[in-house]
Amino acid sequence: MDTSLFHGSLVTTSRILYTPSTFAKTNLLHLQETGSLQAQKPHTSQRKNLSSYLFFLVLSGYGTLEYQGTSHALKAGDCVFLDCHKQYSHRTSDDLWQLKWVHFCGPNMGSIYEKYVERGGQPCFHPRDAAPYEQLLQELYTIASTQDYVRDMRIFEKLTSLLTLLMEESWHPENASAKAVKKQNLQKVKDYLDQHYQEKIPLDYLAERFFINKFYLTRIFKEQFGISIHNYLLQIRITHSKQLLRFTDKTIESISAECGIEDANYFSRIFKKIEGISPGAFRKMW
What pTM does this model have? Predict the structure, then answer.
């Protein structure tokens, strides 16, 4: 644990440089560094090409972030979530800021960060409530400072909770752009799919039923719900088929038909693609 001045007399910091186990580094979200700082003088920190993802919370003061060619003003209560493979820099203003942060990584973090961005996640945002973020950062620091023999698993749990918060915070499709206000709300379409997934539902039929151009319908549905109409239907049908496989003695053919997929062979191929095992193996497993 380092409680010294960092960058000479520019920052007072309390940090933990963490070394995860080989197992954690290979298989889990794992901690690299966590801590808090109080700036003592205005200064700029710049990094790039780090195998890391950075989250920090501004506790007080003001500053700016430069990331991917854009400047962001930061104030107390703001959060930052960055891919540190890309160049970034941040600078405290004369109103010196105080931060809490965590650097972390994991075998699937590249895909997770891409999903965050795809859902509308921004490098900087002001959460509705910053308290859960601050609490998780404090808990990560506390766990990392112990000798708990399962601390890598506890850290994994906290980092997963942090990413869950970030994913929840990122999903605001109604605010995606100025045009979003004018876009048609497709909740009725989604409700219809929920109720009629057992039927054959061609895209042309949906478009005609709800008086929407089919190309517009497919684009806006994915923007609003984060998944295509086709994949959403498959998700519902496979979920229902899993219930029938576990809790009934119905044949694969009848389950396929009941879930809206007429071709049982196609159903089996899709089921295996999504679940990793065949419908028969899934039933036997349970």
Answer: 0.68
